[in-house]
Design brief:
With 394 residues, the protein is an alpha/beta fold. The protein is built from 14 helices and 18 strands.
Length: 394
């Protein structure tokens, strides 16, 4: 294996939200690079301190090889994950590959310590298999096969990918919700980690919903985040852990549900986020739009609020302040009534008639502030409450 002195293109800079951020590389790239290095050392008998890897994105990486162990008929080594400026729990972990000779002429790939096992339908791998996704799996096998051909070795090789500490890390990921137990997933479609990737979040939303769908749930409830999960459990009696978390991506969540042919979605969220839906804003992040006070002020004006109250609403900083003003003026119920009608309109418009969708908006101080017209009907017809209670009992 050629010993490279350059660091290659790892850590290239990208612009994101007016900031210069450093990209990284995926656990899949680490696994493929470690497997390539281990195969080379096993078949050549020579030590390799560095390995090159061409990612599916076309970026050439030069990566340091660590923790090299020569054993009887096997070699093990690791490559350290670098997430760049992306907030990733796997940053700096060591991804190990052990390559050993085995009977036959094929390549066998499996997961070891710290790599999760699939326990539910709907994921890329079958139940019981290691959670090594399709692209990393191909990268690993191709990297090892390349070394086998260069060494003119025609026998079989077994590759085990492991991540010490991966079981603990997995508790800080979506894996338990997706039915992946015992460790992290080996991921990556491009081989490169894009800082603060919106696509990664949207893909996770789709995958969560797909797992529910393929495990018999045609209806689901959705929350933007932990506030919604807590409210589902404490106020509505649902298991908040069964909800799909959509973050700010309401529109993409609806698109995913339509694409998966879900029957219905019940959205529950804090007024600070979902109030924006009344203006047709389907990405509720503040950098996309912040029309909260404009919505409150417009609907208060429609309810007959005097000019002074409308001005006070426009000057509010938080939705808590606005709700307090409306409650004190006796306008809260009427305002939330028209707000929920607009939310209902825009949700159904995005769904395009392909999905039943309802929503409930709450605040921590007042509880449920409003529901869309079909929300209670959806709860009853979908049997979501009974479904949750049955799952808890089981």
């Amino acid at each position: 294996m050629q010993q490279e002195n350059a660091k290659g293109q790892q850590g290239e800079l990208v612009w994101k939200n007016q900031k210069k951020l450093r990209s990284g590389y995926t656990t899949g790239s680490c696994g493929a690079a470690a497997a390539k290095a281990a195969a080379y050392m096993l078949l050549s008998g020579e030590r390799a301190e560095q390995v090159s890897l061409l990612t599916p994105k076309g970026v050439l990486l030069y990566l340091e090889v660590e923790e090299i162990t020569f054993g009887e008929d096997f070699v093990s080594c690791a490559v350290r994950k670098d997430s760049g400026d992306d907030p990733d729990v796997t940053d700096k972990v060591l991804v190990f590959a052990q390559v050993s000779r085995c009977p036959g002429t094929g390549l066998i790939l499996d997961g070891g310590e710290g790599v999760g096992r699939v326990t539910k339908k709907g994921l890329e791998q079958k139940i019981g298999e290691a959670a090594i996704n399709r692209v990393p799996r191909r990268m690993i096998l191709e990297a090892v096969d390349e070394q086998r051909e260069k060494a003119r070795y025609t026998g079989g090789l077994k590759i085990i990918i492991s991540v010490p500490g991966g079981a603990d890390l997995a508790n800080r990921t979506f894996n338990p919700r997706l039915g992946i137990q015992g460790g992290i997933s080996i991921l990556g479609t491009s081989g490169i980690v894009e800082p603060m990737s919106e696509k990664a979040l949207i893909d996770t939303i789709y995958l969560e919903m797909k797992v529910l769908k393929e495990n018999g749930h045609d209806w689901c409830y959705v929350v933007p985040g932990n506030y919604g999960s807590d409210f589902l459990a404490q106020a509505l009696g649902f298991d908040g852990e069964m909800a799909v978390k959509c973050s700010n991506y309401i529109g993409e969540m609806i698109d995913a549900a339509v694409g998966l042919k879900m029957k219905g979605v019940f959205l529950v969220g804090h007024v600070g986020k979902l109030i924006k839906l009344a203006a047709g804003v389907m990405n509720t992040h503040s950098r996309q739009a912040d029309c909260r006070m404009e919505v409150f002020a417009a609907h208060a004006a429609m309810a007959g609020a005097p000019c002074g109250i409308v001005k006070r609403l426009m000057e509010c900083v938080t939705t808590t302040e606005a709700v307090e003003i409306l409650k004190k003026e006796g306008l809260l119920k009427e305002v939330m009534g028209t707000v929920m009608k607009r939310i209902d309109f825009y949700l159904r418009q995005r769904a395009g008639g392909q999905l039943q969708i309802g929503a409930a908006v709450f605040s921590l101080e007042e509880g449920i502030l409003g529901v869309t017209a079909c929300a209670e009907m959806m709860l009853a017809s979908a049997g979501l409450r009974e479904q949750t209670q049955k799952e808890k009992a089981e």
